[in-house]
Amino acid sequence: xxxxxxxxxxSMLALAVAGNLLLSPCLARAEHQPSAQGAETLxxxxxxxxxxxxxxxxxxxxKKSQQLGELAKAAFVITPEDIxxxxxxxxxxxxxxxxxxxxxRVDANKWSVSAxxxxxxxxxxxxxxxxxxxxxxxxxxGVYWDSQDVMLEDVARIEVIRGPGGxxxxxxxxxxxxxxxxxxxxxxQGGLVSTGLGTEYAGMSMRYGGVLGAQGHYRLYAxxxxxxxxxxPAGQVSNDGWNSGRVGFRTDFELKSDEKLTILGESSRGxxxxxxxxxxxxxxSTLVDDEDDVRGSxxxxxxxKGLANEGLFTLQGYLDYxxxxxxxxxxxxxxxxxxxxxxxxxxxxxxxxxGGGVRYLRDKTEGNYTISVDPKSDEQLxxxxxxxxxxxxxxxxxxxxxxxxxxxxxxxxxxxxxxxRLSWQPREGHTLWAGVSRAVHTPSRFEQDGQVxxxxxxxxxxxxxxxxxMQITSPVGIDAEKVIAYEVGYRSTLSKxxxxxxxxxxxxxxxxxxxxxxxxxLSMVNGVATMLYPVSFANNVTAEAYGLEWATEWRPxxxxxxxxxxxxxxxxxxxxxxxxxxxxxxxxxxxxxxxLRTSHKLTDNWHLDGWLRYTDALSSFAVPSYTTxxxxxxxxxxxxxxxxxxxxxxLDSHHAEGQSEFFSSPAAEIQRSVLATMQWHF
Length: 682
Fold this sequence. Notes:
By secondary structure, this protein is mainly beta. Helices cover about 5% and strands about 60% of the residues.
């Protein structure tokens, strides 16, 4: 018996139409504000005192506003200045600067993003949100990064919480939470045109913001982009280019001094090229061209009401529609989500937050011979409730946080996700913290109802052949995956020029899903004698992971900054009968990662950025270790205009980072590239 671990040009047209819309006379009734609000200066990152970095706002840890320095969790905040100085054009590329986050670019249109291990094309133990809307697909509980994009100029911050977030966010926040938060409409008044043209990427974004009456502001935007094909090792193009376009809006109303209403929405469409494996019974599999048609729309409404004694009540709902059509399957789904939470102070030293939510999912998934789900259509209802108490002991400079979340998912028993955390501030600017928590990952739609058939023809000798069929099925009764995590950390401002943030963790996993295979046997399939290899999901793997994550920033002068991040990870997987799967799950995430960024103000108008990264080898994909270097030169002739030239992956002409586990093209390699960008605020 052998088991294998399972981790698990519309754009230009849209821009032209949206540009017309953004500046159309229908908005003339709104007060025009031609300021260049939102145009950050190049030296903004260097003007912020280092001690203020630990006072950055974070809301993802407890669904309330907290300062980064006081958190009893491993956290990292990507600011607008970080985005500007990174030279990145996509969210996954930005996440490479975060310690403990594993980013693998599979090809031109696919990324794998995970926290603290278990990376892979279908990594699924990390919750990702945009403005509070979950963007993971319930089909496999991971993220299609080719259908997720934002105007990077409109991002207020990206909050990254490493370690379980189940007490607040629930299932699938097993190893961490990434929350992408965009700026309010009031922060993006006036107009912006942003363009980029390079050897691999071309894109354009437009945004316009104005006033709605006496109490509101609006933002309208459009973005289109195109990525060129990557290479395969033979030097040929990989047929994995892609393009996407999106239009959207945001409105913010201050109904009263203590009452706010936010409404935002977006519609997008894209074409994603690739090669995929198709199968037919009694025939060898073939690699064919594929083109995914990807569409999506969503609408979010959030109401906030301030209460007495610094209390706050928040109600949010969203409607999300996604569509993906490819050779392998057609997936169409609608999500309706409603949640609330209530923050209040109790007695003198308790800050309580509690809430609950309901999520309704409806999908239609049609496959083919290779991949399918049964039933093809399904409806699911999820219920959850949580409570958390933050207890302050001011005389001891201690904060104790205790809470839990309970969730009800279809066909899964009730899941509890408690946590206990303690932080101590022996003196200002220094925080020691520790925590223990439990989190779960509930099975995805495919893990519960899916089937995969991989067919071929084998030689039986003497010129004879016989069909061979590997059949992967989902048995009834698979359970949620579970982890108990132990964490300690320290963050401080060591001096006015130096900050540091260190976290250590030990994760104990149980009931991890794996492919449980049986012996190959001769069976009758479609009336034909066939060598059948049956495989099914089973909760038969345990694991331990431990590691260290370190981030530090040093400013040797008022015009120069360095940011260093280091990650160490050791993951051990165990299955019955002593099998340990080093060749798969353990080798899908790098053991060591290093990121070194620097920003240097050359003159009042010129700025130079550099980003050096090292990633350890990935044995599962036969990818050697690699080092990359990005350089960016800015010129800002005025507060309204910015120009930049960016070089990506400058040390090698091309390099591999990973590969899809299933139904993929040959291993692709990411090429060296050059990009010129321009921003105009008006």
